[in-house]
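Q: Predict the assembly, please.
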Amino acid sequence: MQTKRRLSVVAALTASIGLLAACGSGVQPGEGSDAGDGESSAAGGSATASAWITTGSSALWADSFEWWNEQNPDEAFEVEAFANDAYKEKIRTAVGAGNAPTLIFGWGGGGLKEYVDNGNVVDITEGTQDVLDRVIPSVAAGGIVDGSVYGVPNAQSQPVIMYYNAELFEQVGAEVPTTWDEVMEVTATFNEAGIAPFSVAGQSKWPYLMWIQYLTDRIGGPEVFQAVLDNEPDAWSDPAITEALTKIQELVEADGFVDGYGSVVADANADLALLYTGRAAMMLQGSWVYSTFKADAEEFTMDGGLGYTTFPEVEGGAGDPANIVGNTSNYWSVSADADEAAQETAVSYLNEIIFDEEYTDLLLSEGGVPPVTGLEDRIAEIEDSSFVELAYGMVRDAPHFQLSWDQALAPAAAQELLTNLENIFLLQITPQEFVDNMNATIE
Amino acid sequence: MTRGAGTGAARRRRTGPAPWLAAPALGFFAFFALLPLVGVLVLSFTSWDGLGSPEFIGGSNWSRMLADPLTHNAIWLSVKVVLLCLLFQAPASLLLGVFMAGKQKWREVLSILYFLPLLFSSAAVAIAFKSLLDPNFGLGAATGLDFLSQDWLGQPDLALVVTVFVISWCFIPFHSLLYQAGARQIPTTMYEAALLDGANTWQRFWQITIPQLRYTIVTSTTLILVGSLTYFDLIYVLTGGGPGDATRILPLHMYLTGFRSFDMGGASVVAVLLVVVGLTMSLGLNRMSGSHRMDSQQEGA
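A: Predicted assembly structure:
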């Protein structure tokens, strides 16, 4: 025990030195972190809770903390904002070193489960009933581990949607495909017309996931990936996965993807640009890119140039075509290293603010899809109603909402998956090699 | 080194500043260099995913990482990058540096242009090149030249060469600067003598410039070797190690193992490997060039 503790100090020290070197500014939240031993916390009195948020598309979180701080100056949050990728790497080190903010922002899935297993986050089943009653159950389930609540959804649901360029479909006289056979037919049609059928941001790797996730689900149903999550031996050997990989490679060989897709980057939204500049006809992407379409090509998006639909069926597949994949939501968890007062503040913030009317309206005004029940009437009134209606309906009616595989798996297996999948798309390995490599990650 | 010189050095040391004056520097060195190094060595024998406490698992990280094809690939790629960088950067910077030391017309304007890449941060360079090389919206599309519309960073065979090119683009100015300084040190009398003997430009370059630059060559080569071995930021931004594992060199392999897969033990093994390879290389070079031969420059010429 003694050596173990000393070792963890060395480890934490090494990690934080590494972090300092990597980030330049290693800002740590002040009060909430070092009061974990309990004795010193009572004397101080100022129980400021803290939260780290990610910058980028949504002002939702920053605004909600501002409201809260105005109304509760005694229980104010200290908020710091980070870029998405930088945050992902920083938060884990902070949690491991016991320096996490009171509210830990996450994606649910394998990452949340690891926090729970290590006792880094606390059970907040009590005190969050109000907010969970407002949320669609399948989304709330993403924050529940072993029957207890460890995460509360805090953002839009992000189903993966098939976007298409309606003008191009008109130009070549084709119908939007609803089955996989039609996908292959329309691929040939577009290639004859000199237009790339699909855009995909290959260099970012994760857009490839959307393909294997939807295909596996349509062919074999959600049970196939559940077996992987349950660590069943050789779970990747399921024929549905091999068939999905084979279909992907058939599409690659039929020139289904835009030239040079291996160096298209999602960060720069180059994959979207290919669609609205008429170089590619279709694209699989999350619902979050809709607001970028609107910002970068407003006329095209609002005047019917941009089409959106669900992923096609695969003939004879076992999965329900209403199933969706994507990110169920983002989640707030409460750090076990925070002192009790800060934890209480965090729980009341979650229960009172998250997905109340104002929060939900703000999310809707950003074109987001709140995972909240009974929004149909309010959605009909907004400017982007046709898109939000589709996405909201997909989330509401989906029998199964599969969290993105890279988030659902433990980090090591997720990295292995992304690399192997990239090699599948680049025709560097065969489906069988993929299956063997991935089976090796199951412990 | 004779015995007399040794005792002379010892006498000087006795009269020099007290050794404890070095204490603050040594302290910083120990805290920021040695302690993390020891920490990494300890971590390489543990299993730790960044949460909770590391657990001692003996040498199994070592046997696992050393048997991992990804590690072999990373070592092989690192060697490739070092060799390609050397093959590309050394001759180019030598020629540029010697040219910049000359007296040609427009030389100064060109020197400033050549020097520019060194002033940009590598992240900015990487982002700029990424946009230029974009197959759909980059140089090829802008100029209408088809051969520029390659999938430069998306093809495993091409990505590494392109990466080396971008690295070289960044660092050739620095090495040319070294060569320029070296070339300016060469006494003009040697060239005048050669001219009298009827040597042409090529002979003067080959017979005088190159031999006179041998120490600059050693310095620059060492810097290229060690620099390309530890190269990280540019490749990270440019390709992220992809496509597949095509540009996943040792430092990236370490980073991705540690901070993407959260396998801190495995990443520590790679870190130690990197330290060993780097030390061996620079020590080897140092021995090859020889410190006593370095000294002799002042006595000769």
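Residues 1-45 of chain A have pLDDT under 50 and may be disordered. Residues 40-156+328-373 of chain A form a domain with the D-Maltodextrin-Binding Protein; domain 2 fold (CATH 3.40.190.10).
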